[in-house]
């Protein structure tokens, strides 16, 4: 994992707001750790940070996201 992070790629796991990029190297082996930002989900992440920084509780933010039918990670409720 450390080597991936030092090369500037993801260390593991898939975070909300990103998707895995499936690429192969010259030998046909999968290149691991490359991610692409999903713009709509990234905006939700920015919103969560803005609201938290302004003092809004995570519970209140989650309730608002659910009320607005914005799907959370894995398409579930927040």
Automatic annotation (TrEMBL):
<dbReference type="GO" id="GO:0003677">
    <property type="term" value="F:DNA binding"/>
</dbReference>
<feature type="region of interest" description="Disordered">
    <location>
        <begin position="59"/>
        <end position="78"/>
    </location>
</feature>
<feature type="domain" description="Recombinase">
    <location>
        <begin position="39"/>
        <end position="78"/>
    </location>
</feature>
<protein>
    <submittedName>
        <fullName>Recombinase</fullName>
    </submittedName>
</protein>
<dbReference type="GO" id="GO:0000150">
    <property type="term" value="F:DNA strand exchange activity"/>
</dbReference>
<dbReference type="InterPro" id="IPR038109">
    <property type="entry name" value="DNA_bind_recomb_sf"/>
</dbReference>
<dbReference type="Pfam" id="PF07508">
    <property type="entry name" value="Recombinase"/>
</dbReference>
<dbReference type="InterPro" id="IPR011109">
    <property type="entry name" value="DNA_bind_recombinase_dom"/>
</dbReference>
């Amino acid at each position: 994992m450390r080597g991936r992070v030092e090369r500037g790629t993801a260390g593991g796991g898939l975070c909300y707001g990103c998707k895995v990029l499936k690429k192969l190297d010259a030998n046909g082996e999968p290149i691991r750790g490359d991610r692409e930002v999903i713009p709509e989900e990234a905006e939700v992440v920015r919103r969560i940070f803005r609201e938290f920084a302004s003092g809004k509780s995570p519970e209140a933010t989650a309730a608002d996201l659910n009320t607005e039918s914005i799907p959370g990670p894995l398409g579930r409720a927040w």
